[in-house]
Amino acid sequence: MIKPLRPDDPGALGQYQLIGRLGSGGMGSVFLGRAPDGRRVAIKMGRAEHMDEAEFRGRFRSEVTRSRQVPPLATAAVLDADPGHDPPYLVIEYVDGPNLAALVREQGPLAGATLHRTATGLATALTAIHGAGVIHRDLKPDNVLVAPDGVKVIDFGIAQAFEVTSRHTKPDHLVGTITYMAPERFDPAGGQSLTAAADVFAWGAVVTFAATGRTPFAGDSASAIAMRILSGTPDLTGLPGWLRPLVERALTRDPARRPTARELLDALLRGEQPVSAKKREWSLRTILGRR
User: Fold this and answer.
1) 9 in active site
2) Which candidate, 69, 113, 181, 275, has a CA 20 to 30 Å from the CA of 59?
3) Contact 263, 274 (CB under 8 A)
């Protein structure tokens, strides 16, 4: 829903006229804007507390550069950014549709071909994102927009700028939504570097939400949810038979044993289960051979 601008909102950011408010998120306020050529765009404006942080601006600039290399395959294209502006802002493709969280909340869980298209679209987006060397880090239903032509994933890579900003990142603070976090995210001191496998875990959790209306690791507090992710069994009740094996593999605790996004996509398109990590080398040779 587009809301009117507030009295203290700017009328423009750079060359972009602001039309209304779309919402707010971890980065700051999100506006509907108009580009010089007349097309509508979404503009994310940084929070005031980031203005004087060279570290944030530098990381933001780096992540935007990498994100612009992601092909627009089930992703909202990054169109422009100005990390040096006061305030810094990011311009992305405007998607006229609700996010997945709102859609499921208002219309109920997805099923059949709609669920298959959503799962496939998310796997397509992650394949494109990971192919550009980017890790999303915060894949969740709120970051999945549902357009008439399919889903569009947003905010990929931008969370990285917040994770390294010392003034806003406490030792016990994690950037992202706990419900969809991979177990390795909870132990940064354990020696495991974050990889694209964390996004695959989030894919499994998001697809479970889309199919059932609930997350696979429910809890009444953040600590309870984290404990279930670390040591519990995911609740996959209600998942259709064709989807359950893929989600089970995606939610494996060991990141090395999860399929890649490309393997998930291949399995969804061919109606097969993703291969295990032990068979991955053979699978990649097969995929490359078909190109």
Assistant:
1) no
2) 181
3) yes
